[in-house]
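Progress narrative, work stream C.
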Amino acid sequence: MKLKDLISELDYKLYNGSEDTEITQLVCDSRKIVKGCLFVCIRGTVFDAHSFIDAAIEQGAAAIITEEEVEITQNRKNTTFIAAEDCRNTLALVSAAYFGHPAKELFTIGITGTKGKTTTAFMVREILEHCGLKTGLIGTIEIITGARSIESSNTTPESYDVQKYFREMVDNGCKCVVMEVSSQALMMKRCAGITFDIGVFTNLEPDHIGPNEHASFEEYMHCKGMLFKQCRIGIGNFDDEHIKDVFEGHTCSMETYGLIEGAGLRAVNIQYVHEPGHISTEYDVEGSGLHVKLGLPGKFNVYNSLCAVAVTRHLGVDADKLKEALSVVKVRGRVEPVKVSDKFILMIDYAHNAMSLKSILETLREYNPKRLVCLFGCGGNRSKLRRYEMGEVAGKLADLTIITSDNPRDEDPLDIIADIHSSIVKTGGEFVEIANRKDAIRYAIEHGKEGDIIVLAGKGHETYQEIKGVKYPMDERALIKEVLEEIKCGSQIS
């Protein structure tokens, strides 16, 4: 592949060498330099790749893109150099060209917002797959390319990886892709060069504000809004107070969904149903004749599923298949039901701070459980304030709290539990302390009563427990299975 084919969409200046230079690979990580590669110098918060230029040449880089012209010294004169103003934007555009512009072969759906991105993305994919449209996924929990699933390290990967996964999806027969698009990703141009067929805004709350993230709420909001300057159709939560600001200056057509009067697609007649061993949420979609039944709880899942309906109707999905998909969809670690008994309900959720724990407990309370049981711990090497806040929330909102271990990291789990104890005891709420998480889960199951709703909070989709720098395998689903086998669940819990 010639360099000129990779940089055809760039605004650049060639200041040494030739555009006809043959390129073997595209690289933005100095540790991955190979002979004949094009090396794009990225300025990060910790490292500046411009300082690795000479090392890259020694390892065989054929061409280098910099943000401004650098001195062409004796050892650099046989290497092609190009200057492009914004190397993050450059990397995105060159990556798209390197992988053959795979986004143009997919129906692309990008979802941004403070909360709901993960669940909505899973719902959209589930509906499309159910309707026979093979669909890739890029998100917080995992990346699905049509042939494999990869555990995610970022909500939205670097632009090179986004394009690489898109190409893999196309090669595996995917027709669509749904991806979570974080504000950081938009700010850092990880999705530059992609014109999304649909862009989605779920909601906005103060978050990700601080060092190495966003300087202010206004910047955070502005970055969310960037998605709607690079999509064809924008779909937003009408009920969110920030929707006008997020969509300010949008270049797409705009649609809305919500629960209040004025939303383009509106959920009405919402019912929270609690049956033996099962909870569900039902509502009607005003004006469409569609009745939705979800196996997931809460108003927030009404919003998530209504958003999924708003998105997928643009792909002409069958109404019956849409309803079928929504009735069975589960999202790993997001109020994920795990069937253990017909007497009580057990759910796994990622709630790992006071705000999210309060939200899930208040949501489950709407289903009028006989008892609301909350099992949780707090991570080590983190602010103690989180422990005090979560203890206070659980003590006030749960009928029984089981305090246990989460990711203790370098701290003693008993010290963390003691911190939680100090706040929960002030609430007067009932609680027990069981440091070993598997033993805590066993206690929750063995003491479950008819009509209870039990939520295991904090770990969610995680499949490990971090102790002193080592991540040991620990999946709550596996722990539940082990516990049930050990107590011979079939004969003791019905």
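Work stream C, second folded protein:
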Amino acid sequence: MQKNIEVRTKTTWRNALKRDWQLYLLLLFPIAMVVLFNYAAYPGLRMAFMDYKPAKGYAGSEWVGWGTFIKIFNDKDFTRALRNSIIFNLGDLLVSFPMPIVLALILNELRYPRFKKVSQTILYLPHFLSWAIIGSVALTMFRPSSGLVNIALLNAGIIEEGIPFLNSPWHWAVTYLLIGVWQGMGWGTIMYLAAITGINGELYEAAMIDGAGRWKRMWHITLPGIKSTIVTLLIMNLGRVMGSNLERLSAFENTQVKEFQYQLAVYIYNKGIGNGKFSMATAVGLFQSLIGLILVLLSDRIAKKLGEDGLL
């Protein structure tokens, strides 16, 4: 009996490059962007350890070591910005993170394909709007006296006077977080919907035969099927607890909410560009990145201890 013997030739990098050179050529552009904006700026981090003066450059500026960090940690403005950033980012995580999961589960249960596609398109749209546009729309919607929301509530007799959604610190905080949920929840469903499509359909069929309803199928099949995706995205989001978005904060800026609006992104902008203290701004940015990295590594380790795959 004659056996067919399959001969496999080893693919060398030269053969791969010759065969797929167009793909490698296209890959050069994103790699160049990553190297340029993510790695080429690394030598500038030494400003955090210098009393950097643009006129003197790196060679002429005085080396102060950890002096810049000591100055930052003794700065009351930094303490206030750090506190606000942590509180609002944790609030964002608690409010915004579960919503894409819930929304993905709801979209997955829709049985009319055209309605499902239209709904997804509408929900994705806010992600592509700049915060300047979102801030303008929010100002139009939530003005205390002439905003559309307050007018509707007043006409319905629900309230007797306008609610200061964007003018009172605590109202501003709630509005700021909820608008963040609205802006990001549609786009956040993409990963979860992709994970749901990877679940074996036979599991749902077996559950239906056993009499499981939609809720039980969702709880016992869909959620466990996307658990690894949820854990991975949660770890990545924990790395952003120290971050803040200057564009978003600027879009909702007003003098009456300065106490809450003043976060690390505003601090870095004011110190670095406004006051010309480039060393302090660089040191704060480096501090944010290191804390974010530590949080990611720590949460990844905890996830692995609990039996999840984690990131690394």
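The two ends are 48 Å apart (CA to CA). No further action is required on this item.
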